[in-house]
Amino acid sequence: MTVMEETEGAAARKRVEGKVAIVTGAGQVDGPGIGTGKATSILLARHGARVVLVDREPERAEVTRKEIEQAGGIAAVLAGDVTRPSDCERMTQTAVDTFGRLDILVNNVGVSTPGSVVDTSEETWDQMIDINLKSVYLVSRFAIPAMAATGGGSIVNISSIGALRSIGFVAYSAAKGGLISLSREMAAQHGHLGIRVNVVAPGSVQTPRTKGASEKLGTDLEAVARRARAALPLGRTTRGTGWDIGYAVLFFASDESSWVSGQVLAVDGGQCATAPAVVLAAVELEAGG
Asked: Which pLDDT tens digit goes with each residue over 105-116?
């Protein structure tokens, strides 16, 4: 267990006490580590929020709910697809009907596929935009009026280091870059309602999805870890996990960031201070050849 993996007993101060949150992609997929959605949901519940756990595969969210409730927290599971407007409306309605209000929205769903503009199909392009960008528009358009009705709230959108530098995933990176622009527009247009909108941009972190991503790139988890150790400023001393993303979300969700909106926080082990991942991979390949 790392320092960031706070024990249940250490959470004496409830940072989001009394608030109601929706977390999309709150389930846990197979693989080593903890996902960002699950970690975020657990931390929000541990700090006093009641959480609506949304996942297209509700059995995954049930795993998260059970852990929350075993620790004394409160959560409800909702099966929903963030690309369907009717499901997105139902997410907000469920929060209001079940818990009486909505204060926090975490748009966490994301999928990725590597490729350039030359070898990315139009179908893949559309899928990346729909899931990673359009979904945030759909979920938020229903959540914002509910937040405004009770004095405001906090929206935290999960982008990617790919929005800030090249990672070799052109459609995914384009969508995540668009998410930052969308978030700033939302922050500007809805701030007068007491609604803050901020972005967390994860870098290379160990989650269950890392395994799938590494397989898509034709490598393995050890190679990913080795590259992180060599390339990231903090790579030799620590390894980012879903908990690190969850803590960044918790800050933006809490009143501790009440004067912060329209901002992007890269949680990346210093990755933005180094050469892009595609350059590092090319250097590694050249050295090996």
From this structure: 999 999 999 999
Does 175 reside within a domain? yes
Of the candidates 125, 142, 169, 172, the residue annotated as catalytic is: 172
Alpha helices in the chain (DSSP H): 36-46, 58-70, 85-99, 122-129, 135-149, 170-190, 208-216, 221-231, 242-253, 277-288
Question: For residue 204, what are the domain limits?
Answer: 12-288
In this model, does residue 13 exceed pLDDT 90?
A: no
Query: Active-site residue 172, yes or no?
Result: yes
Q: What is the pTM of this model?
A: 0.87
User: Could you give phi then psi for residue 228, rounded to 5 degrees?
Assistant: -65, -40
**What distance in Å separates the CA atoms of residue 285 and residue 218, rounded to the nearest whole number?**
13
Number of structural domains, the chain? 1
CATH number, position 24: 3.40.50.720
Question: Which tokens hold the place of 145?
Answer: 């009026």
Q: Does 1 map to a domain?
A: no
Look up residue 161 and give its amino acid. Answer: I
Confidence class of residue 289 from pLDDT cuts 50, 70 and 90? very low
For 20-32, the pLDDT digits (tens) are 999 999 998 887 7
Q: How confident is the model at residue 63 (pLDDT cuts 50, 70, 90)?
A: very high
Q: Is residue 4 part of a domain?
A: no
Domain-located, residue 38: yes
- End-to-end CA, the chain: 38
Only one residue has tokens 């009440």, namely: 258
CA distance 64 to 206: 18
Per-residue pLDDT, 52: 98
Give the Cα separation of 213 and 60 in Å (integer).
19
